[in-house]
Amino acid sequence: MNGGQHRAVLVAGPTASGKSALALALAERIGGIVVNADSMQVYADLRIITARPTPSEETRVPHRLYGHVDAAVNYSVGQYVADAARILDEAQRAGRRAILVGGTGLYFKALTAGLAAVPPIPADVRAAVRARLDAHGAAALHAELARRDPRAAGRLNVNDRTRIARALEVVAATGRSLIDWQRDGLPPVLGPDTPRVFIAPDRAALYARIDARFDAMLAGGALEEARALAARGLDPLLPAMKAHGIPWLVRHLAGEIPLDEAACHAKLDTRHYAKRQFTWFRHQLGDWPRLPPEAALAALLEAVDH
């Protein structure tokens, strides 16, 4: 199906910004379905610690792609795009609008801009390119890129450090232009006219909400959830084992630190993550409207009416 035909709405924002409540309210107003776009809420083992929608919320409108992956799985962006495309097709056939909501910027970028099929770049290649960038500057690396991959160099500003380094490390590692890899990747699933918003609450209020929410998670069974996950003996490097709060609660359960210390670190990690989300979306998806929570619902309702 052509990506532009999908009737969808994109709701992004930092953790604890109220985006799930907004998506639920919007879905109820327009008869839509809510589709997860959070890389941790996909895991079945992490309902409480990731603040997934509650069972009662899930009965109000259909929810998709929540808790459908086992914690032992390293779920990829590519797999998410494939799953989301399937759900979008189902919603389209049912005549319902899909509201994709979450804080994982790579999911939104892949859905709207496609996904390059670039293989993993060896760490030593990346380190060597970055070292040359730091030593000689962007212009020198752009000249090197022009010799090795003139097509990619021709598309890049001579001062665009990040993209120059990326293009150079790809051709160094694979012998192939990033342009060719991108051509062979996944195309965008959603068109450029898809209504979208990044919820941007007041920072101080958001950080206070993060802290209060973690306390509520502990009261609601987060420690028991962490205990059950730890009992599985999974690789600690799996994404599910690195969900905010889990490593600290596992350390507490192992007797290494008291619960109040674990909670303090978990809150701090989550606040830092929220700050990174603001920065990532500003740099990577800077054309998205940024609205406070109280204005976002009205803006999206107006957008879907047009």
Architecture blueprint of SSEs:
Layout: E1 8-12, H1 19-30, E2 33-36, H2 55-60, E3 63-64, H3 77-94, E4 98-102, H4 105-113, H5 123-136, H6 138-148, H7 150-154, H8 161-174, H9 178-183, E5 196-199, H10 203-219, H11 222-230, H12 246-253, H13 259-284, E6 290-291, H14 293-304
Parallel strand pairs: 1-4, 1-5, 2-3, 2-4, 5-6
Helix pairs in contact: 1-14, 3-4, 5-6, 5-8, 6-8, 10-13, 11-12, 12-13
Describe this structure in words.
This protein folds into three domains: 3-115 and 189-201 and 285-304, P-loop containing nucleotide triphosphate hydrolases (Rossmann fold, 3-Layer(aba) Sandwich); 123-183, Histone, subunit A (Orthogonal Bundle); 204-277, Helix Hairpins, CATH 1.10.287. Helices cover 55% and strands 7% of the residues. It contains 14 helices and six strands. The protein has helices spanning 19-30, 55-60, 77-94, 105-113, 123-136, 138-148, 150-154, 161-174, 178-183, 203-219, 222-230, 246-253, 259-284, 293-304; strands at 8-12, 33-36, 63-64, 98-102, 196-199, 290-291. Helix 2 (55-60) links the parallel strand 2 and strand 3. The protein is globular and about 60 Å long. The relative contact order is 0.17. The model has no long low-confidence stretch (mean pLDDT 94).
